[in-house]
Amino acid sequence: MKKYKNIIKLSNLLLDALNKLKTARLQKIQASLEDFSYKCSDATKDSHLFYAAVEKRWFSSAEKIRTRVNRNLSDFSYHLQRFKDLVSSDETKLPKLSCIFAELSQIDQDIGEYQFDLKEKTISVITEPITLDDIPLGPFEIKLFLNEINKLYTDSPYRVIALEPNPAGSDSCVTHPHVSSEKLCEGDGVVSIRKAIEQGRLCDFFTMIVNILQTYNPDSPYVSLDDWEGISCYDCGYTVSGDECYYCEYCDRDYCSNCSTYCQMCDTTVCLGCAYECPSCNEPVCQNCTTKCKECEEVFCKDCLTEEGLCQNCEENRKENQDEEQKEESTEPTASPAVQPDNVGKAIVHA
Ligand SMILES: [Zn+2]
Ligand SMILES: [Zn+2]
Ligand SMILES: [Zn+2]
Ligand SMILES: [Zn+2]
Ligand SMILES: [Zn+2]
Predict the structure, then answer these.
(1) What DSSP letter does each residue of 138-205 carry, written as one string?
(2) Separation of 262 CA from ligand 1 center, angstroms?
């Protein structure tokens, strides 16, 4: 008995949502009606100028105005057609409460038990586990948010949630070739799915979504089933299989062989972005295997620095200086060190 009452409540919520959607549609017509009447006056706004030009026999002016009117009319007929399409498209009648109620029990019969949440205002259906081209994608929950039905023309009012997700290797948001971030790419089904929602034909709506989920359209997947287990290179986007993919621990991302390299010192895999080319030996190295020269502070691979931590240049300079110093020392007599008075440089401490 409780269940029956709740289904009546659910039907009422749905009817309410469809009412709001109808209002949104009428408001859209209202807005384009205003826009259209503006365009009407725009198309004929030159009539008094034309009249004056003809009266005064200003033929070249009249000719210019005629051309302009002609151009305006082409625009106008385009707007007229769009306006006609919009007005004529709205022949949707709101279903009766009893129809909605019947529609809900139809879901039970055709698809399986549906679930609903009166607080959250959602109704959902769970599919059988889906396998496409031998790739198991698990069951999906199709969840319709009654509160979002009125945004039908700008956003999708339902989500497709993977319950046992086996997402594409290259994009964890893609849980099905036609589902990304819980949104379904409806393909050719867009119009029929919209119509079903507008008319409150929920059983048709869920059936269409289930059918799309059970079929693979190789022309327009988010990620093709052929590449499902592959990983896409963060740099160039090329999809590679798991064992052809290289992980860079410095930036925590996967790369193809063209976009990664090895550190010449420690053999770690690094992406080209994180690898550092030593300016001395020109070999790629990882960040761990680089050090600054103590003298010039330029970064080199550890192999290119001396034990004292100097780069080749700085080491050569040091040797030259040493040689010169030695020469100077051998020619000049040693100067006696300057004697400093004892108290200089010491702070005077008061007791
Ligand atoms: Zn790459
Ligand atoms: Zn990296
Ligand atoms: Zn080096
Ligand atoms: Zn290294
Ligand atoms: Zn140096």
Answers:
(1) E-EEEEEEGGGGGGTTTS-SEEEEESS---BTTBTTEEETTEETTEE--GGGHHHHHHHHHTT-HHHH
(2) 15
